[in-house]
Design brief:
280 residues, alpha/beta, 2-enoyl-CoA Hydratase, Chain A, domain 1, four-stranded mixed β-sheet, 11 helices, 11 strands
Length: 280
Amino acid sequence: MAPAAATSSPMFAPAASTTTALSLANVLYEKNGAIAYVTVNRPKVLNALNTPTWKDLRTAFEDARDDAAVRGVILTGAGDKAFIAGADISEFEGRTSLTQRDAMKSLRIFDAIEDFPKPVIAMINGFCLGGGLELALACDLRFASDNAKLGQPEINLGIIPGGGGTQRLARLIGEGKSMELILTGDLIEAAQAKELGLVNDVFIPNELRDRVRALAARIAEKSPIALRMAKEAVKTASRTTLREGLSRETDLFCLTFGSEDKEEGVRAFLEKRKPDFKGR
């Protein structure tokens, strides 16, 4: 849910070598080496998500998915006030159960991010509320500035989270605390979010970008095949029984043995050098 509108200068300033990948109205999409940066660019309304923005997000992630040079994505919001402060509530007025269901089905970006074949990191640089938190929950890793506030305040509008908040939040931090946050609509500070395991770590605002970029670069050096298999194996844990998960892990582990990257990794280890993974 978006608080009152505010203006701010972009928090994310890409390096000089960054190239613009696509021209989108509500999302900045750039690539810098192996990392793609997806920045919701509506700082005057704290990056609230409207229908055109959902479409731009889908376009950006589709491009990142199909570009073999991209090995990871950082998702963030423009300005220093908000990551994403929720949905654009003005679009909810007058919608019926059927029209809202149609809208949700046509723009299921939450699931697309969760199932994305490459690592996705949420860089939470301020308010992370409602649909914004649901987008962060769909990412693989979450890092926040120490002034960030997170929550699912939909209950205050007479609705509930509809982008996976009731499911992914409970799987991540447990039913009890999730129930409390969703039923009260309360917001929590970044430090508490870290204690709960909702975010991986918290940094002061002027360090957040560099710390997240450094981690993304480290991950991008790994085998793209192994990263994809590892993501699927870990996510299987919350979707199946232990026995089913262990079986899937074995299958994915064995599949990595059919890749050139596995041969390169083993050879590099034995030769005491850094591996050069090609994603094959």
